[in-house]
Design brief:
2,3-Dihydroxybiphenyl 1,2-Dioxygenase, domain 1, 37% strand, 3 helices, 84 residues, 26% helix, alpha+beta
Amino acid sequence: MIQRIDHVNLVVDDLQKMIAFYQDLLGLRLTKRASIGGQWIEALTGFETVEADVVYLEAPTGAGIELIQYRTPEGNLLELCEFK
C-alpha cells in the first residue's frame, strides 16, 4: 500500500511559465533549482549529451513537483523516444 508520494516529475517546454503557474496560481514554494547532465541522466533517459534545468516545488503538505526542461537533446522527447 502506498503510504506517501515524495514528488512527481513533469517534463515541460517552458520552465519559467510552469514555475509561475505552480507558484503564483497554486501556491507551491520553489525549494531548489539545478542544472543536470552527465552519464547518470544519459543512462536514465537513453539519450546522449543530456542537459536539463530542474526546479523542485513543494506544497504545504510536503508533496512536491519536479519540473524538468531539457536543453539537449533538442526536440520533443516523446517524438524522440521509441515506444514499443
